[in-house]
Amino acid sequence: MSAVLSSLDKTRRAKAIHSSISARIQHTGDFILRKLAQKRKINQSPLVVGINGAQGSGKTTLVRGLVDFLTARKISTVGFSLDDLYLPNHEQKELARDRRDNPLLRFRGQPGTQDVGLGRNTLLSLLANTAPTAIPSYDKSLNSGYGDRLAKDQWPVAQPPIDVVLFEGWCLGFRPLDPQEFQSFLQNVHGESNLYKYSRKYTDANLADINAGLGVFEKQLYDLIDAWIFMRVSDIDVVYRWRKDQEDQLAESGRPSLSDQQLEDFVSRFMPAYELALSKLDMHGFVSSGILSNGTLRMHLDMDRNVAAYDHKL
Ligand SMILES: Nc1ncnc2c1ncn2[C@@H]1O[C@H](COP(=O)(O)OP(=O)(O)OP(=O)(O)O)[C@@H](O)[C@H]1O
Predict the structure, then answer these.
(1) Number of domains the chain is built from
(2) Ligand 1 pocket mutation pick from 52, 60, 302 by most atoms within 8 angstroms of CB
(3) Could you tell me if 48 and 225 are in contact, meaning their C-beta atoms sit under 8 angstroms apart?
(4) What number is the ipTM of this complex?
(5) Is residue 3 scored above 60 in pLDDT?
(6) Of ligand 1's atoms, which has the minimum distance to the CA of residue 55?
């Protein structure tokens, strides 16, 4: 009996997730259509939309859904991820060797472990909209999970004309702190409150490297992004829960999964960037090309990834 109930529960849950995903695609798709109409009045280059959301918040799912939503309306759309810009495995190993002082740079993930110049050139080529653009592609499963960039002849090629580019990343859009802001962040890290408990595990110099990495993002990428979709979670600790659910599903299906300790190590390596950047983003919003008005759609996600509210207040 309980097995029947549990399979009923699973079906209900799958339906709820499906309708949550559809609603999110519809709302963000409508936002993109409005921004595309605005951009068309200015020029014919593609609308570039940056998508920021914590790990596991549903970025990949959203981009896939939006590609279908837009393609069905004959809007030629390309999606890719900041993850596709990670350094090739041998370069990541070199970085880890050269920067033994910084455990945050040991593996892929943090700002500083991507080839940002490759991202800029890819966006510039897409924006020029005149020649085919090879889209960088990274496979996280290669090298026993350490990952590697695929050879260029395996990258998908986007054919012009392109109307919309969707570019997603867990820390895409995070802005660097200026020296004064960084000092007050460090004071908080070393202070009594538990607000920055993950950053406390690292040295000030380690954290400064991440801040500098964000500076490179801001300088090289954000002027090419016209509009932003921000999936904001109120409590960043939910990233653990979401990732744990994913690992449990892998284990249930008999596939390799991370132990609790590995999971903790993995997730906590990402946390300092959230602690460093999220409050500035909440306060001052994203940097963009600046050519569109009301260029950010923010969704507030609850712990089950449901959208509690949408707003444009950034
Ligand atoms: N709107 C939604 N409502 C409920 N669940 C969702 C929603 N969107 C995605 N999910 C589920 O959340 C999980 C993570 O989704 P997804 O891989 O798209 O997230 P992500 O942000 O790309 O993660 P990562 O940063 O780890 O790559 C998947 O199991 C997916 O089915």
Answers:
(1) 1
(2) 60
(3) yes
(4) 0.97
(5) no
(6) 25
Cα–ligand 1 centroid distance for 21 (angstroms):
9
Residues in contact with ligand 1 (CB, 6 Å cut-off): 17, 20-21, 24, 53, 55-61, 170, 305
Residue 280 to residue 175: CA distance in whole angstroms = 7
- In the block, residue with structure tokens 């490179």: 216
pLDDT at 1: 47
CATH number at residue 254: 3.40.50.300
Average pLDDT over residues 230-241: 94
Average pLDDT across the chain, whole number: 95
Whether the CA torsion 311, 305, 18, 139 is positive or negative: it is positive
Buried b (16+ CB within 10 A) or exposed e, 163-181: bbbbbbbbbbbbbbbeeee
Per the structure, the complete domain to which residue 225 belongs is given by 2-311
Quote the pLDDT of residue 145. Answer: 86
- Ligand 1 atom closest to the CA of 56, numbered from 1: 23
Map tokens 């990258």 to a residue: 155
- Expressed in angstroms and rounded, the spacing between residue 160 Cα and the centre of ligand 1 is 29
Q: Which residues, at least 6 apart from 109, have a Cβ–Cβ distance to it below 8 Å?
A: 269, 270
What digits encode the pLDDT tens for the residues 39-63? 999 999 999 999 999 999 999 999 9
Protein residue closest via CA to atom 10 of ligand 1:
58
